[in-house]
Amino acid sequence: MGTVVIYGSMSVDGFIADENDQPGPLFDWLLTGDVPLDDSGVLKVSQASYDHTRAYWDSIGVTIAGRHVFDLTDGWDGTPPSGIDHVVVVTHRPAPDGWDPSAPFHFVDGIEAAVARAQELAGDRVVEVAAGEVGGQALAAGLVDEVRMDVVPVVFGSGKRYFGSVNAQHLLEGPDEVVQGSGVLHLRYRVRRPPL
């Protein structure tokens, strides 16, 4: 099975969005360089960010997101973001009325079931869990292998937390990777497993 990774861009004080679900400057680093990150030509980053991010994005087989993010993005118009093969949506509700059943989106109730479904779909590729409530639930359930974050030099003061409402201590190893890009610091940690 592939590695399960929480991923997202965040402020230096740990927020992935403000109180109104707006990311503010959290994704500005995707426009600050001269190296195209994807085929659109819109996203351009520093060479260091490209080397780090492109390799990671290419390893992702499935993304897990919550229904809130799915609704905010209008379901990415039925096309998974960043060339990902499938999206597993954690929700207590069914797919929206009129949703194309052939779209590679899977609506699953509960984080454990979502990770299990994502691992089936991903095979040996990475299962990415969106930072926020769903990422925090996966971490609290002991289902996460790594934490990756793109730390942006802004302080929000309040908003949506990177780990959601997690209220227990979780130890990480490392960092295993620290990459300085233009307007961003890329970090990767392994989640420390409790002794058996």
Summarize the structure.
This protein is an alpha/beta fold and 196 residues long.
What would you note in describing this structure?
The chain is an alpha/beta fold. It has a single domain, classed as Dihydrofolate Reductase, subunit A. Helices cover 20% and strands 31% of the residues. It is built from 4 helices and 12 strands; from the N terminus they run ββββαβαββαβαββββ. It has helices spanning 47-59, 67-72, 111-122, 133-140; strands at 4-11, 15-17, 35-36, 44-45, 60-66, 86-90, 105-108, 126-130, 146-152, 160-161, 172-180, 185-191. The strands form 3 sheets. Strands 7-6-5-8-1-9-12-11 form an 8-stranded mixed sheet, sandwiched between helices. A hairpin with a 4-residue loop joins strand 11 (172-180) and strand 12. The chain is globular and about 40 Å long. It starts with a strand and ends in a 5-residue tail after the last strand.
Structure characteristics:
196 residues; alpha/beta; Dihydrofolate Reductase, subunit A; eight-stranded mixed β-sheet; two-stranded antiparallel ribbon; 4 helices; 31% strand
Would you identify the CATH architecture?
A: 3-Layer(aba) Sandwich
User: By CATH's scheme, which homologous superfamily applies?
Assistant: Dihydrofolate Reductase, subunit A
Q: Give the biggest beta sheet.
A: 8 strands, mixed
CATH topology name: Dihydrofolate Reductase, subunit A
- In the sheet with the most strands, the strands line up as 7-6-5-8-1-9-12-11
Radius of gyration: 16 Å
Helices and strands, in order, run as: EEEEHEHEEHEHEEEE
Domains (count): 1
Q: How many individual β-strands?
A: 12
CATH domain class name: Alpha Beta
Number of helices: 4
Query: Distance N terminus to C terminus?
Result: 20 Å
